[in-house]
Amino acid sequence: MMDFAIEGQVKNKAIVRFFVENLIKELGMARLRKPAIVIKFMNKCDAFGLCDGQKNAYAEIHIAKKCPATGRKLGFIEMMQTLAHEMVHARQFIRGQLNNESGWAWKGRRADNFEYENQPWEKEAYRLEKTLFMDCFPHFAEFNN
User: Fold this and answer.
1) Could you give the CA distance from residue 143 to residue 12 in angstroms, rounded to a whole number?
2) Which of 6, 30, 115, 125 is 20 to 30 A from 37 via CA?
3) Is the Cα dihedral 11, 38, 133, 22 positive or negative?
4) What whole-number distance in Å separates Cα of residue 87 and Cα of residue 44?
5) What is the C-alpha to C-alpha distance for residues 102 and 114, in angstroms, rounded to an integer?
6) d(CA 125, CA 132)
């Protein structure tokens, strides 16, 4: 199983760990050994979630615990759905589909001029996040109350 670490305070860390293991399997990254993912739960973050990484090396995910715009505390389920979205980006970075070393590139082509909603990597992450969340999150019904 791919190495990963969870940093920062988050409730139900054991559930988060199980969820990440399920996401890694579902995203087809379970056989990868060398890359590592670091997931940081942060009080201050510029977005609900951010991801950076490098092909065959690492991915680092930041998950906000508070809404960047309002300061409202984010719910556990909101953070987990954001984590599912950012794990898609982690896979994109690790597999070399997404690169931001010298400007944004998607599958080897320059992609600096895309509007956010038209970025192919975001379209993929938004398309997959809810299905990944529903398929991989343990005991969804218990936490959805």
Assistant:
1) 11
2) 115
3) negative
4) 19
5) 15
6) 10
- Which residues, 6 or more positions from 63, have their beta carbon under 8 angstroms from its beta carbon? 10, 39, 40, 41, 42, 45, 48, 49, 79, 82, 83, 86
Provide the domain limits for residue 48: 3-143
Long-range contacts: 95-104, Cβ < 8 Å, 24+? 95/55, 96/55, 96/56, 97/121, 98/53, 99/55, 100/52, 101/54
User: In CATH, what number is assigned to the domain containing residue 104?
Assistant: 3.40.390
Number of structural domains (the chain) is 1
Contact criterion met (CB below 8 Å) for 65 and 73 = yes
Per-residue pLDDT of the chain (145 residues), as tens digits, is: 789 999 999 989 999 999 999 999 999 999 887 789 999 999 999 999 999 999 999 999 999 999 999 999 999 999 999 999 999 999 999 999 999 988 899 999 999 889 999 999 999 999 999 999 999 998 654 554 4
